[in-house]
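Reading group handout, session on sequence-to-structure problems. Before we discuss, look at one worked example. The prompt was deliberately terse, the way you'd type it at a terminal:

> structure Ppx/GppA family phosphatase

The input record follows.
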Amino acid sequence: MGSNSFHLMIAREQDGSLQILHKEKEQVRLAQGLSPEGYLCDDAIARGLECLRNFGQRFSDLCETRVRLVATHTLRVAKNRDKFLKAALKVIPYPIEVISGHEEARLIYAGIAQSQVLDKHNLVIDIGGGSTEVIIGNKNQPVKLSSLRCGCVSYNERFFADGSLSLSAFRAAQAAADKQFSSLSKEYFEGRWDLVLGSSGSVKAICEALQEYFQDETVTLSRLRELKLKLVQAGHVDKLEFANIERKRIPLVPAGLAILISFFRRLEIDKLTPTPAALREGVLYELAQIDLFQDIRHRTVDSIAQLYHVDTKHGAKVRDSAMALFDSVADSWQLRPHARLLAYAAMLHEIGIHINSRAHHKHGGYIIAHSDLPGFSQDLQQDLALLIGSQHKKPQFDTINSLPDGRREVLVKLLCLLRLAILVNLGRVARSLRLSCSVLGENELALIPEQSARVELLLKDLKREKKHMAQLGLQLRLDSELSTEDAED
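And the output record:
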């Protein structure tokens, strides 16, 4: 229950992960109804109660439901909040938890840590309607939590109330934000951050505006200043038009932008990356009592494997074969940073069998491409989908060849290793066939199958594999003692 919008999320715990079943938000504008003396007006209270009444109808008939209602800055500071809280109990029969600024910051960081891989030194900013949370974290653990009294709704009321967009209004808003950021402890001004993340609707809206004006979402101080000048040139919020920003959100963009510019200037930030997760995810994961994995991607892979009933024993065999081949070539081909991607692809390569065994690779690729995969970046998710979708029969030549050169070369080599690992485990054999390999050149690989009664079948498969890989620019050479044809080649 934020200062600008109330959010509802309904989820279920599934194999150690959360599946979002329903989510919606309603702009209640609670902070706009807060007087300078700190009292909520009757209209704001009525809007909030009506929203809770509507939300309650979404889950009132569910059985075995855990419910948590969390309120942030506006109800935190409202002197007459008890009036709202008592009235709310008659509308929705669950107590409202008004959390402190530090608890809000902790939950924000927990939600982000549950949703993506964090680095050693992280800095997070969340610009809300009435407050801005700034968090320092070490990997999954927050180490410094701060909540500042500046937000997009409160600053919109103070500096952009009439909708005019002038340099003087921006300067006043930035000066006020500067005072807030200057109150942070010295740790915030000493860090060299591995990762700077921005969450909340304000950061998302600013990124959408940058995308529209500059064709990408790169968030730097120079870009933010350029965006400010474009808003000033428009002159008034009524003249602002953004295709991907909700109309109700547009008037709050200038205030959020002023706060973000101040954040960049005061803390000497080089670049910020938006993150979709925040407070709501933190509340949900704690409500579901899901522990925080050290590697979120590992949890995601385990969860999706269980969801689609993957044969994890067979997946582990393919993974072990793939990693044995990987170790033979990783240093020569400089593939070490991509070890986990190959391991994940091997573990999940049969995910599509749950839908149809005949084209399971295509179904598997589709599932991965269109699933919610916490911890996976957009590119990493696309690469995983491409490996799984190209593991069998003809690879997705057009998609692979359209990738940038460096990324394409890595994917082709990982795909080769994955397909070879699948070949030595075809069927459900008790013991994998042994296949060793060695690098002959940047795009050439020697394959040496073991001598066994089953090797003839493997040789046929490998000859077929040679043709596929050749179309991707990777030459496979079979051991000369086992293949006369390849010796002649």
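Points for discussion. First: DSSP finds 19 helices and twelve strands in the chain. Second: The first strand starts at residue 5 and ends at 14.
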